[in-house]
């Protein structure tokens, strides 16, 4: 039942209802007019479109294994199909006003699906282009000379999350500590001494750190970066997400966020730094989700059973309805704490899908069960080692 809460699946359901009604109305026109065969595509294609849209709705946030390209293929098929139906309906305006409705409906859908495809391509590609653009081509001596100059303190913003047990959680946001890209050569030790947190969550992929090396020598990678953090007696957690994109699996991501909050409360590690390369997109998305899960865990069992509002079940991007949508409120909270965070439409939609599952008691029971099972396995392994 949790899927019914999903904004994407809610849209797919509405799409199915409208397409079915329009298909039935078009069928009566075709039967009455004895029209040509290719006009029958207005009856044949809509059910297939519904199938592909539901498939897209389920897989765009679960792209593990061989599912990576299925959402994009579904979008491509939907765009081509809607464009074809737009052209066909435009050729038969004289038959009935129903054909006008078909034209308007499929024209709008073509624009919508094409916009999603373009946004996805731009966002997915720009991450790689950004890494190459800022690749560090300086020698080690040149980097060290840059470090010796006056370097500004690492810009760190914080978001305070109140707790019922007076053990408030403080989330810090920053760019990559010790970042070494053009015109921004930092010292990792100085940045870590400034941070003073219990846990650092790194959202970078390993290749992002490798691009900060010089031309030939591989002196900077995730292992070395993690070693510096552990030397500073800071817990280091790595959850790689592609730059300017979203996690591959929403179920894994919810499990990850849930475990962070539980362990922060359990071990009193309530100062957490979240960062990616620039500390904006992936960082903002993760901090929004941490705020939502923290609020969920602080609630009583009865409060956790509260349902989404009607507005929260529908896609209302690009509008942020702070007074009607808890997710929009969390996004604005993070933006107030750190300007410029989470403006990527894919990341904003992902957070809404995240919240849809968070408010599902069935879904969260499974998340809790998986977490407890993982804890028991770790305890058994620890017992066997000793």
TrEMBL record:
<keyword id="KW-0812">Transmembrane</keyword>
<dbReference type="InterPro" id="IPR016130">
    <property type="entry name" value="Tyr_Pase_AS"/>
</dbReference>
<feature type="domain" description="Tyrosine-protein phosphatase">
    <location>
        <begin position="207"/>
        <end position="358"/>
    </location>
</feature>
<dbReference type="Pfam" id="PF00102">
    <property type="entry name" value="Y_phosphatase"/>
</dbReference>
<feature type="domain" description="Tyrosine specific protein phosphatases">
    <location>
        <begin position="251"/>
        <end position="349"/>
    </location>
</feature>
<dbReference type="InterPro" id="IPR029021">
    <property type="entry name" value="Prot-tyrosine_phosphatase-like"/>
</dbReference>
<feature type="transmembrane region" description="Helical">
    <location>
        <begin position="38"/>
        <end position="61"/>
    </location>
</feature>
<feature type="transmembrane region" description="Helical">
    <location>
        <begin position="73"/>
        <end position="97"/>
    </location>
</feature>
<dbReference type="InterPro" id="IPR050561">
    <property type="entry name" value="PTP"/>
</dbReference>
<protein>
    <recommendedName>
        <fullName>Tyrosine specific protein phosphatases domain-containing protein</fullName>
    </recommendedName>
</protein>
<feature type="transmembrane region" description="Helical">
    <location>
        <begin position="103"/>
        <end position="127"/>
    </location>
</feature>
<dbReference type="GO" id="GO:0004725">
    <property type="term" value="F:protein tyrosine phosphatase activity"/>
</dbReference>
<keyword id="KW-0472">Membrane</keyword>
<dbReference type="InterPro" id="IPR000242">
    <property type="entry name" value="PTP_cat"/>
</dbReference>
<dbReference type="InterPro" id="IPR000387">
    <property type="entry name" value="Tyr_Pase_dom"/>
</dbReference>
<feature type="transmembrane region" description="Helical">
    <location>
        <begin position="12"/>
        <end position="32"/>
    </location>
</feature>
<keyword id="KW-1133">Transmembrane helix</keyword>
